[in-house]
Amino acid sequence: AGRSGREPALTRRQVVGLVLGAVMFLAPLLVDVPGLEDMGERMLAIFLLAIVLWVTEAIPLVATAVLVIALEILLVSNQALLPVPGDGDATKYSAFLGALANPVIILFLGGFLIADGAEKYRLDKNLAAVLIRPFTGSARTTVLGLMVITAMLSMFMSNTATTATMFAVMMPVIGALPAGRARAGLALSIPVAANVGGIGTPVGTPPNAIALGALEEAGYDVSFLDWMIMAVPLMVMILVGAWLLICVLLLPGGLKVELDMRAQWHTDRRALTFYVIAAATILAWMTESLHGVSANVVGFLAVAALLVTQVMGAKDLGRLSWPVLWLVAGGIALGDGVGATGLDAWILGLFGWDAMPAFVVIIVMGMLGLAMSNVISHSAASNLLIPLAMGLATGIDGLEPVTIAVVLALACSLGMSLPISTPPNAIAYATGEVSTADMARVGIVIGVAGTTVLVLVMPTLGLLLSSRVDHAPAVEALAVVQGPRERHGHGLIEA
Question: What is the pTM of this model?
Fold first, then answer.
């Protein structure tokens, strides 16, 4: 293919996705949808297209996210190509473009740059080598230490980068073990811990950012520390349970592991400057309630400090995970469109969600998020479900928006039963040490058990923290949305 210059042929799944996506997009535009106004029908077309493209990956995930923003501008904004009913009530096009510079995107930008700096100056590998040194002797103890360190790193680095780092550190140890289930246990513990650890902080994984973005758009200000108070206890519970499961299924009790880990710290000016900036940023994130500076602002100041001091440069910026940032932006814009056009209220009325107790809704949405994230990307599952969940939260008594958004974000991060479920799983599978059967057995148990704990515990944590979360603007925002609905019959935010 490379010699002929031809593009690789589309797979059958991609062809089906493109055809089905086109059909699903055109259907609401050509056929009147009962109970849905014109702008809602346009948004439904965009939403159905996004579902098909994200599930089938007919085009790259980031391309779908950008397409969502473009179609919203062309169909449901004040720059729409088609006439807009109720002249002057359409959402400004800049609101959809603004998703690309949402404060949550800036927060993630800071997190990504710090994570890349940790790799550039070997801080990640050195920390791993130092921290794992005490966990020598028993293989089960070593795996516990490995999972704790991986989870800690994954709280502030991408799950994929953390997994790659830990495998680079541990592959000699894995290779020294006798062939068999012990190798699989040690290798499998790394992606499991990376996936679980990512739920601990807002910058740990894209679903967290998608949830925060949706909450911020609805007027709910969840601080960095608030998120950790909700997520870290659950993370620890699930991590310990996962370790016990791996020990029982894959690690013999008497197996010994010898570790010889040496750290080689960079001590030049730039490395030392990076250590200081990274530590100060993480400390500022965790003490937001004391100094009052938003975590989003702290993330941007970290970017400025790293660039001004020349610790990181333009090439480092170019290597950031920009597709992930654009994917999160697409999810934020999708949520904006669903809420602005009244599509959320229409979907709410389809299934009689308002007749269900709030607790049942949380269980159903949590399990749905877990199921979807096992077969499509965690980010795509979050992008599709969180906007719907936020709509449900405004129509069901006792259902807190913070609770349902966090439940979905964390449940999506627990989808890890297949090699395709998440990049850390794919990295582990590529080593040849982990079979699909072992991955599925461990992943399904952790996912179901973890989501069960999540839906049982999170409503209580959400209520305890509701007084800490400033949600006064949400009432005002809701009033703005409801006003045009009452006057014009559809849910358009006033321009």
Answer: 0.72
